[in-house]
Amino acid sequence: MAFVDESESNSQLDPDVYILAAALVHGTACEKIRAWVDGLRLDGQRKLHWAKESASRRDGIIRAVESLDVLYLVVLLEDICASPSERRRRRCLERLLRELIQAGVRHVVLEARERTQNKRDLDLLTTLASRHRITARPRVDHVAGPAEPLLWLADVLAGALVASRCGDPGYWERLATSVEIHRL
Known about the structure:
about 180 residues, globular
């Protein structure tokens, strides 16, 4: 299974960059890793969210995450044309879906956004399949971030990449050996 979250980089330090990050978790390990990641939340915290964590918390989260048996895949778009976010997402999602299918992923969980945005993701999947731009059609579900701790792994990965691109590479360096990155 793949758990996917998005991020746009720092608009001042790294403008026009869009990231889709995926955590690939073997189906048999999902429950164990989900419970473990959920345990990283602080009391009263709805979900782990990289951008809202302190530097010391980020260090502890990375320490915990780097020990997991999880592979990561990132699609990164450096868009010099400054396309709208939804267009950047479509480009990244198409590439991500192709890579996940090639890796044998049959179930993709995307962090839910607005209903119309979620529908656009599913419409893209239908279009890609009908045009034979993907070789299989994985099951795609949208799940609210607080409801699925495995989505938080993708958020951590995207956050670490943004930090690296903005001058703080330490977090990313600790995860990079488990990451396959594709640039558009």
